[in-house]
Design goal:
The protein has 8 helices and 5 strands; from the N terminus they run H-E-H-E-H-H-H-E-E-H-H-E-H. The chain is of the alpha/beta class and 173 residues long. It has a 5-stranded mixed sheet, sandwiched between helices.
Length: 173
């Protein structure tokens, strides 16, 4: 059963919601000694549903009332979280990584309590290079201070190397 704090447009059938709660639980069990704080959600190719999985996993974490969650759109080639959450695409992650954005200004509240969204930001020619820079480490340090869980919605791994770079910085992929 989903909490009443979840707006109707984000509600899914209870059996689907239960699957995301199971996924969250399995992630916790798999890392009982050191909890997953930074998670990358990726797939092999486009249209495999990573934005749906990342969004619903973030909602599952936030809905339990004990996690402050940051959902980050790092699917630079086909960002979707700004459409899902009906927020502006920029400023966002690319703006922060090139040093032209402010973290507080880039964070967008979601209609889900305890869930903030960092959209992809402006298009950038070589996002892998951005992810390899020092600014991502700064962003992750800030996210770890302020949030209990950060979930990246990443580009697919077959056509792009973005998710591979993110995976090296995350606790789990």
């Amino acid at each position: 059963v989903q909490p009443a704090t979840i707006p109707p447009r984000f509600r899914v059938p209870d059996d689907v919601a239960e699957e995301f709660i199971k996924l969250k639980t399995n992630l916790a069990i798999g890392r009982a000694q050191k909890p997953l704080r930074v998670i990358v959600v990726t797939s092999a190719k486009h249209a495999d549903g990573t934005s749906t999985v990342a969004s619903n996993l973030a909602i599952a974490y936030a809905a339990d009332g004990s996690h402050r969650v940051l959902l980050i759109d790092a699917a630079f080639h086909r960002p979707a979280l700004h459409r899902i959450f009906r927020i502006p695409r920029d400023p966002g992650l690319t703006d922060l990584l090139v040093g032209s954005g402010d973290f507080e200004e880039s964070l967008k509240p979601s209609p889900i309590p305890d869930l903030s969204v960092l959209p992809a930001g402006r298009p950038y020619g070589n996002p892998t290079r951005l992810l390899e820079g020092d600014r991502l480490a700064q962003l992750l340090a800030f996210a770890r201070e302020r949030f209990d869980v950060a979930i990246f919605d990443a580009s697919p791994i077959l056509p792009y190397s973005d998710a591979r770079v993110l995976a090296t910085k995350a606790d789990g992929t």
